Fold this sequence. Notes:
The protein is of the alpha+beta class and about 325 residues long. Helices cover about 45% and strands about 20% of the residues. It contains twelve helices and eleven strands.
Amino acid sequence: MSPPLDWLSRLLEIMPVRGQLDLRCQYGAPWRIDQGAFPGGEMAYHIVLAGSASLVDPHGGEPEILGAGDILLLANGDAHTLHDGGGARPRRATNRVAANVVFSENTGKGNRLDMLCGRFALSPAHARLLRRYLPARLIVRTGVASTAPTDQTSGVALHGLMALMQAETTADFLGGRAMLDALSTALFALTLRFASESKEAPAGLLALAGYPRLAPALDAMFHNPGYPWTLPLLAAKCNMSRATFVRLFQEKLGVSASDLLTDIRMTLSANELRSTTASTGAIAEAVGYQSEAAFQRAFKLHMGVTPARWRKQAEATEEV
Length: 320
């Protein structure tokens, strides 16, 4: 018998994420990275191993300073700029293939930066739904550079994971490329776990997961999305009134419980349409719709195409 899945494990089961390490950047100031936008199903990440970096605010505000141990996740895959903060003309960077990763280096003599850069890949539809519940720019500070590192278990685990990724890039170990990508995949889950445990968890699923009063409703929707849940039923799961439940859920997540439940159902439906031959009616019933017509409307609204069209597109993609 398999152990029960927590909400994050369930989320990653229905929206699988694949990590990939692209570069290890080792620069001396002055340096600058102008990263273009990523494809629709990808999210960028950066891990500062040593040194510091200034993340430019796209709206013209003060830059965000990243230090050793900080992890930056750009959920929307937006174009972004990182630099040393000095304002001097950056030295040109060149790439060097070594060991299991590509090194990007320059000839700058100033303060040194050591940073891992990669991406998390999802299907475009899954990425679109997941981004609704993550901040566009998530910065996780694990405390490596502080005098009192975090004592959170997940913080210690993140330190260990970053150290292992760093070690795998310094020698040509057998299976190193596969190891780095597997560690990148683990990085996604561990970063979200750490962020959800933070006292200042960002709005969205991460803040909701850290609020135990609402956990029963979250677990119920992720583990039994086909049940005919109503707001009173979900509120009762949390031992609170409907009004209090609605207010707290909206406050923490930014959308209603009904919106989250619909997104979970649509994701499961998309997976079933891609991986099984089950009829649209059977899938509609399995995810909690009494009417196939209602399911068809909801699916097209959320995914942009009809269930039949989605299935054909998925089959065409797999044949390529």
